[in-house]
Design brief:
66 residues, mainly alpha, 3 helices, 55% helix, elongated, MFS_trans_sf, Major facilitator superfamily (MFS) profile domain-containing protein
Length: 66
């Protein structure tokens, strides 16, 4: 029991830092972020081209990407 619990805890901690947050992201956005090699810790805050298009359609100011 101790072995199972301790290895599970180690893997939960490792996966927390390795697996990126994909909540509310489409596969197109995820593909774009992986192609641009965006660090996985920045997935939640990164602004994709889909986000910029939504902002432009809503009439909000759009940030330019170099």
């Amino acid at each position: 029991m101790f072995f199972y619990g301790s290895t599970s805890l180690v893997f939960v901690i490792v996966m927390w830092f390795v697996i990126p947050e994909t909540k509310n992201r489409s596969y197109v956005e995820l593909d774009e972020m992986f192609e641009l090699k965006v660090p996985t810790r920045q997935f939640a805050t990164y602004e994709t081209s889909v986000d910029r298009a939504k902002k432009a359609a809503a009439g909000l100011p759009v940030t330019q990407v170099a």
